[in-house]
## 1
Amino acid sequence: MAVTAMCIAPVSSIGVASYSSSSSTVLRASGRNCCFASLRLEASSSEKAVSHAFSSCSLRSSRIQELSRFRRYSLVSGERDQRGFFLTVAAVANPVDVNKGFDEMIAGTTRKYYMLGGKGGVGKTSLAASLAVKFANSGHPTLVVSTDPAHSLSDSFAQDLSGGTIMPVDGVDLPLYAMEINPEQAREEFRTSVSKDGGTGVKDFMDSLGLGGWVDELSELKLGELLDTPPPGLDEAIAISKVVQFMQAPEYSKFTRIIFDTAPTGHTLRLLSLPDFLDASIGKILKLKKKIQSAASAIKSVFGQENGSDKATDKLEALKERMIMVREIFRNKETTEFVIVTIPTVMAISESSRLKSSLEKGGVPVKRLIVNQVLPPSNSDCKFCAVKRKDQKKAMDLVSEDANLKTLEIVQSPLFDLEIRGVPALKFMGDLVWR
Ligand SMILES: Nc1ncnc2c1ncn2[C@@H]1O[C@H](COP(=O)(O)OP(=O)(O)OP(=O)(O)O)[C@@H](O)[C@H]1O
């Protein structure tokens, strides 16, 4: 078959990184090679043609040896115009080089939870969205949820997901759903429902019974303060507990993979300590309420008064139970994995080390560290790139020396030359990272 091929410039419209022939590059990800290019084919887009075109266009002769390692080609996108086919192709190394980590992630149909967390701006959302696309492509009905108050899931999927409900991801024939929970709104809903049903009325109720002495004790319980000026992390805890509540409903039983795109590290750490804190606070409230109720029933038996509403207590009890469930989910090694996302800088890696240590103390299972935005190797580094690369290497060395991090599986994700937005780009990223 006569195939003429040439590498052409990046195609921003499809949002996938690509290289022109002069800068064609082999990307190394965690010792595994991969590369990708855009090509124009005059003939068919059969795998053979793509393979031939790819090999003839993208690598210099000194790289021919390496080229033989690129056996698996996948078409990231393709479209036809007057001049033929225009393709973006990804190639990865021999299957022997491929990390088997993802096989373990997709194994089984019992529900699994993945929480992606790390410092602000390191790529948590992009990686969470790409993992969701990858799971869905592997046949898992998948839900990706953002509980970060500063959402970017909508931007990542290039679709409005801000409704606070589960929405199918547009334009893909995949079992893939996404949801952005507005944590502040979730807290407000909870707060309103509790006070409407008599939550703040616990105090009024006591006053009405002439039990003002209890008020001082109540003021130490911190619940009012908790809802008025919530500690950072409470919003997210309520948001996650809301998702857990959803997930118990039969119509959501289909989801076998649920991914949480969480807020930056500080929030996550506080979130982990919240179930214990709330358990203690709510436990105290409930204990006090019981005492009041027994006092109230004594009064009632004398004066025949009606007792106050217990709905607020029930809501608190339900929140407490959900919090305990969230804590159990976080700590369950069989069903949950917290994936730390970082970038190759000393600051980010130091923070990841602290995060790993805190997660470990909290009993949260962690297996993988994704180092995102690693500069791909190049034959012709500019001065800036050479310095940057050296700097990144220093940070990577830190990972292998760090007692908290070196036991983790380290996965590198390359820095792309275009923004990763929309499903085709996320698929491309996911195929490179989650292997
Ligand atoms: N490997 C990458 N190559 C190039 N750009 C990237 C890569 N990973 C992420 N980005 C870009 O970096 C920006 C931040 O990414 P993202 O929103 O995924 O980070 P985040 O950790 O979720 O941020 P936040 O903490 O603000 O929620 C986005 O513009 C995203 O497209």
## 2
Amino acid sequence: MSTRLPDAQVAVLETASATDALTIDELADATGRKPETVTGAVFDLRDAGLVAIEEQEESTASLTDEGETYREAALPEVRLYEAARDAGAADDPAPMGQVIGASGLEGPEVDIALSNYARKGYGDIGGGEITAAADADPESDAEAAALDAVAAGDAESVDGDTLDQLESRGLVAISERTVRSVTLTDDGVTLLMEGVEAAQTVDRLTPELLTSGEWRDVEFTEYNVEADADEASGGKVHILRQTADRVKDTLVGMGFEEMEGPHADADFWINDCLFMPQDHPARTHWDRFALDVPPIHDLPEDLVDRVEDAHRNGVGDDGDGYHSPWSEEFARAVALRGHTTSLSMRYLSGEAVGDLEPPQRYFSVEKVYRNDTLDPTHLLEFFQIEGWVMAEDLSVRDLMGTFEEFYRQFGITDVQFKPHYNPYTEPSFELFGRHPETGELIEIGNSGMFRPEVLEPLGIDCDVMAWGLALERLLMLMYGFEDIRDVHGTLCDLELLRETEVLY
Ligand SMILES: N[C@@H](Cc1ccccc1)C(=O)O
């Protein structure tokens, strides 16, 4: 008597052998079915004891887009070496700038070339000069040869260290997959000898099956949730944005309301209200992105007068001002905000939503812009988690307790405080957290209690504690990133962005 089995299982049984293991791909080719279908059939046959599966992890290497670019145009360090040789740096050190110019390297390629140059023995770099090792031979560059080998599908011929190096440079991507090989078991052979026949099975319910009533008689294939399927990476919300949303939910949960306001604003709101002297170094063109647009005219006149008075004369009986220049024109000039404390000023002054009576809590999670030097922890723009609490009798304990409560909700329990100086808060504290990978303490924020010189012109006579925390630094503590450029910008790591889950 012959056994009835689903069609795909019969095809696999008839193709598989008891002596030669066949992979899923081979079975798929031989039976003319999709690998996913074969995988499903094979699992069912294994559960019925008719075949045995052996699993092996196999890794394949392929070039990334960047790797492909360097394979075609030569590695940046090789291009640098060739330019250095042409400039005579094999005999006498040549000026760095000139060699880089001649190499045609641009943007991040320059850093890449510099950081690999000495490591690979192409020469030395220092004091603005570069030398070219006379005996170095770019023709026998192991990494360049490895790029060719990987492109030709011959990654096995590349030694492990070189492959690791290329992977860590992001030039080669290694992917792992499970290869399953299938053999017939004794029971499988016996069943084949007794005879199997294909039962009609359907794998989906169609409108035709429903209207004809045929669905009553057909046999449905079972779902196999273990079957391999193509990996589809669709669009998703960026993890930075997801974390920003999570921070907003957390702060709303702690009783805060959200502030909003302009990215480009009058210096008055960004700096003057904060008792930042107009000749403060952060207000020079070095740090500030000034905009070439007409000045802002609609500032609240009395507030402008009170702020000017605080700058000139200080506040209170024994107060003192800065004795430095203050001009209204300077206050009206427009720049990209270097912090979102400009929003706090708009809200605390009553400008944004009218006068506020204590107690109040406000926050924003918004972009700020600074003319910093790009490095692993600095970008030209980042997200600041701004916040403040207005109430009678606040103390530093309230400030610290708020941070502990906030960071605890992200699993961060080791927050440390260091006394700090801000022109607008007294006392002031920098916050530090421990990086989960490097163990280093990294700065995660800045905070303090607003000074009377800030509060009095705003017309506030209770306490206000406030802070600006860096969202990207929070992300580093949560997920262990070491370089902020992995997370956004042109050098970001797409794989990491696809795989990282932001959990609530
Ligand atoms: N504006 C500060 C943060 C801060 C806000 C409010 C009070 C104290 C500090 C910064 O950008 O670093």
